[in-house]
Amino acid sequence: AFVARTEEDHDLQLHRSELGILEGLRQFTERPGVFAFVLGTRRGDPNCGDQQAFSPSSSWMPPFMRVNPILEWDYGHVWHFLRSFGLPYCCLYDDGYTSLGKVSDTFRNPALRRSDGQGYWPAYMLSDWSLERAGREPPRQDTPECELREEPASQAEQEAAVASARTAALLIVGDEILSGRVGDTNTKYAAKQLRLAGVELCRVVVVRDELDDISSVLRGLSRDHDVVFTSGGVGPTHDDVTLHAVAAALDREMTTNEEMLEFLQGSDVPASVRDKMSVLPAMSSLRWPPASSEGGEGAQWPILQIANIFVLPGVPQYFQSKVRVIAKHFFSGARAARALRVILGVEESSLVDALNEVVASHPEVKFGSYPVLDSDYKTALVLESSSDSALRAALNSLSDA
Questions:
Q1: Parallel/antiparallel/unpaired status of strands 200-207 and 227-231
Q2: H or E segment at 256?
Q3: Amino acid 80: pLDDT
Q4: pLDDT higher than 50, residue 251
């Protein structure tokens, strides 16, 4: 009715096609004088990719130019424009829908559910614009628009891949860390626990509470490491954007996780924030700590895993309890590295040539050299390896040097 009324009110020449999207596009582009389509694509759409205001069609489409006049608009801009000028829109948006697709994948947005249970607020009342598509199921991976995307691994595959992890990265999210208002204690704890589990913490990054910053860093960390931990930026407040950043980094939509919603309904979390906290990146896995684990307070909460990323709270008490459970129960148990500390009574500068030769001869061993101040000793060397024989050989070479 909305389309028909708009066509009549504005005297539009609307062309309809009963064909699929590919054949329909081909049918129209074969008409004389058809070179471009004006689209409503916006940067927040998961299918937008790296499109610009003028972008050629995708490889699976017939050739034409895509014109995107509102590319940089966000959800709020669209509704401000429609309501400021009194423009008509589909009545479904007044009934809790925020993103319309096919009948089979379009639902009312759970973020608009009224706390009193009396229906849904209209779409323009959505306070968190990043939840625009929370009422949409993720697209099937065999549809044309997803043709070039890598199919996400199943939850079982994600868990199995993490179990064999050998390298890890930690992303700390928080303006309070960067401003110096709060000190970081999570890095040291995570490094120790991962080391005991045979997993090497290779990189630590601290970023602001900014979605784009978090997602761009996460994308690289997830690609380059077996497992990634995030600390902070989770919860119901305005600056808790880590989950949305994870979804953006992995090219996944935010959807209501029924398992999380059921858990929250049985918890003491206020009803006013349950719906928002149950919206997670698609294909999220809720990992439940073993009943015998000593996770401390908060251990009864599930541990959230998306692909190879564990999304953890920033509060040290909760972060550390979850890292302890992950390190003890979720990894397959690679041999932990052993470390030897060698104390020397000579200056570090006098060891450079001999130490370089030993380091080059023992690639299985990590060497660290540290000057010692205000002591009878001058230098401390730390040798670390998961191989006892490699450690002994390196120590013998140091003795002979």
A1: unpaired
A2: strand 254-256
A3: 92
A4: yes
> Could you tell me the pLDDT band of residue 82, with boundaries at 50, 70 and 90?
very high
Query: Under 8 Å CB-to-CB from 253, ≥6 apart: which residues?
Result: 46, 133, 136, 138, 139, 247, 281, 282
Q: Which residue has the tokens 């013998």?
A: 396
Q: Is the pLDDT of residue 288 over 80?
A: yes
pTM of the model: 0.59
Q: Are strands 309-312 and 303-306 parallel, antiparallel or unpaired?
A: antiparallel
Structure tokens at 264: 């929250």
CB-CB contact of 169 with 203 (8 Å): yes
> What are the tokens at 344?
């020397």
pLDDT of 318 > 70? The answer is yes
% pLDDT > 90, the chain: 34
Q: How far apart are CA 111 and CA 102, in angstroms?
A: 20
Scored b (16 or more CB within 10 A) or e, 59-92 reads eebeebebebebbebebeebbeeeeeeeeeeeee
What is the average per-residue pLDDT within 259-267? Answer: 89
- Cα–Cα distance for residue pair 37/69, rounded to 1 Å: 11
Q: Are 41 and 66 in contact (CB under 8 A)?
A: yes
Q: Could you tell me if 136 and 144 are in contact, meaning their C-beta atoms sit under 8 angstroms apart?
A: no
**Residue 272: in which H helix or E strand, if any?**
helix 271-277
Q: What stretches of 9-151 adopt beta strand conformation (E)? A: 36-38, 54-56, 65-67
Phi, psi dihedrals of residue 367, rounded to the nearest 5°? -115, 140
Mark residue 139 as left, alpha or beta (left: phi above 0; alpha: psi -120 to 50; beta: remaining): beta
Distance CA 320, CA 308 (A): 19
